[in-house]
Write a structure and sequence with these properties.
Blueprint lengths: L10 H11 L7 E4 L1 H11 L3 H6 L17 H20 L8 H12 L11 E7 L5 E4 L4 H9 L8 E3 L2 E5 L8 H6 L6 E3 L13 H21 L4 E3 L15 H14 L1 H8 L3
């Protein structure tokens, strides 16, 4: 079960790589937000790891940074902030202009396939913004439902799909362990890339908004993750914001390290004597 976490969610790629290297191949994956991106790429693309390591992140919105010295740098930060405010107030958010780019990236990673075409079952979770309920997809165009699962409010437009208005799956359920159990697997291993503490704190409104969502989810997440048989929690050497994709390689490495440190627990769970 691969949870969200934005950029930190790329640690799932490191977790999967380390598990498979040790001979533990997942029989099904449930993905939420970035976990859906990683899980669907693994299930649908034989070159999944290289695709995730090399994923184009150039189109993700850049948060304004007022820490840079000099008038020109501050002016650029102000312009970025004003554009972000305009896009959020009059449209869907700062990433709306890059929606087409994002869908193209997803299609390239999942090879334009449907969810049911995977080498293993892949379940993608999104939130219906009308009912507030969790919606789970295991069939249909992967790009559409993975996009919906990762569409952050205030950043990207929702996916309108029949009676549903779909956005990031973590809003309704950040750790749908019950979906994983319903697939009939022997054990559920969940990956939690959250950061309970943030040493630096938000530097602007966008960062504050993203951080506030994470804080609101903590208690719910704790209860949901407790239902898994084992939880792998990558440790990051620094605070990593939801949209800080420049640190993606660090996140992937953190997932691999956390999995290697959990090998004894994994062996006890999956290969009991």
């Amino acid at each position: 079960m691969l949870s969200g976490g934005g950029a930190r969610g790329l640690s799932h790629a490191g977790v999967l790589k380390a598990l498979i290297t040790r001979g533990y191949v997942p029989s099904a994956i449930v993905g939420i937000s970035m976990g859906a991106v990683v899980g669907s790429t693994y299930a649908l693309n034989d070159n999944w790891f290289d695709e995730l390591v090399g994923m184009d992140t150039s189109g993700f919105p850049v948060a304004p940074d007022f820490r840079m010295p000099g008038f020109a740098a501050r002016a650029r930060g102000l312009r970025t902030a004003l554009l972000a405010a305009r896009d959020m107030y009059f449209g869907w958010g700062v990433g709306a202009r890059t929606e087409t780019w994002g869908r193209r990236v997803l299609t390239g990673m999942n090879l334009g396939k449907n969810l049911e075409d995977g080498r293993i079952p892949i379940f993608v979770c999104a939130t219906d913004m009308l009912s507030g309920s969790r919606v789970v997809f295991s069939k249909g165009r992967a790009t559409d439902y993975v996009y919906a699962s990762a569409a952050l409010a205030g950043i990207l437009p929702p996916l309108v799909d029949g009676p549903h208005v779909l956005m990031d799956g973590a809003y309704a359920d950040i750790a749908p362990v019950d979906i994983a159990r319903a697939t009939g697997v022997e054990a559920v291993i969940a990956v939690d890339p959250s950061q309970r503490e943030n040493a630096t704190g938000p530097k602007n409104g966008i960062q504050a908004m993203m951080r506030s969502i994470e804080v609101c989810q903590y208690e719910h997440a704790r209860l949901r993750f407790a239902q898994a048989d084992l939880v792998i929690r990558p440790a990051f050497r620094q605070s990593i914001g939801t949209l800080e994709f420049a640190l993606k390689r660090h996140c992937i490495a953190a997932g691999a390290v956390a999995t290697r440190r959990a090998y004894d627990d994994i062996k006890a769970l999956l290969d009991p004597a």
